[in-house]
Amino acid sequence: MAIVGPFGLSVTDETLDADIRAGMAAVEQELLAATKSEFPYLTQTSRHLVEAGGKRFRPLLVLLAAQFGDWQAPGVVPAAVVCELTHLATLYHDDVMDEAPLRRGAPSANSRWDNSVAILTGDFLFARASEIVADLGNEAVRIQARAFARLVTGQIRETVGPAMGDDPVEHYLSVMADKTGSLIAASGQFGAMFAGADEHVVDILTRYGERFGVAFQLADDVLDIASEATESGKTPGTDLREGVPTLPVLHLRAGVAGASPAADRHLLELLDGPITDDDEHAEALSLLRGHPALAKAREDTRRYAEEAREVLAPLPDCSAKRALSSLCELVVERSA
């Protein structure tokens, strides 16, 4: 019988399941320690998203990658905490940029407090991540800094948009590799590296994380349109409301045709800018949910997930490799 672990991952190896559960429990303890401040108000704001839960995918990937060496090596769990804290810091900032009212099924920090508190809390979390990674050595600092620089660059490139003559879809996929793939790649790299895995294994798991990260983000794009709030933990259609084009919208604009040209023109008119009217927002969501452009985005998600799975081929057959492969299936199912 399958054993259900974090992120909905099912494994049949009881040893792997026990290792992952023990590792994740240690990560949770260290997250609480890292988000404690001498100023109680800051502890409250910093733990807001930690206590709201979340998929904890980045720590999970660190722990799975560490299975290719000694997962109990002293740097593995702190590295997982660094990845999650860095991710959490970006969520506080993202919610300010998006003016999102919900995050992980709870009020976002900016809506519960205000934008200034959310931004400063994100800064505090990144400072905590930097403090922990500094104890892991110069190479770890370099990896985290490069990943964060790519993440920020991706966010800026998304904000600015493609240059004249660039393919908007290709630009977007490149942005996702920076914005999301970079930190997930670092998670795979950290796990294998601190577990003492061979250099070629570290490289494989880094490349896996990059490709999987893109698939992971594209699945979120699909969910933002296709899911209800109770499924995704955030308000559906947030990007639509703010006029931020995600992959399904870009495919629509690139000419993926629906059943009716008139309906496509109407949908494109709705999507031309921020949608402030609730009825128009609901109409745009409904039209996109039934449009081939959404199906095309699902195809892209499957393609990147399959590329991630193929990267794993040189690794020895083991429970951790099968779990990483299963994650590729899960992300596709998530976008189905």
Automatic annotation (TrEMBL):
Q: Does the keyword Metal-binding apply?
A: yes
Q: Which CDD domains match?
A: Trans_IPPS_HT
Q: Which controlled-vocabulary keywords does the entry list?
A: Magnesium, Metal-binding, Transferase
Check the record and name the Pfam families matching this protein.
polyprenyl_synt
Which GO terms fall under biological process for this protein? Answer: isoprenoid biosynthetic process
Note the PROSITE patterns from the entry.
Answer: POLYPRENYL_SYNTHASE_2
Name assigned to this protein: Geranylgeranyl pyrophosphate synthase
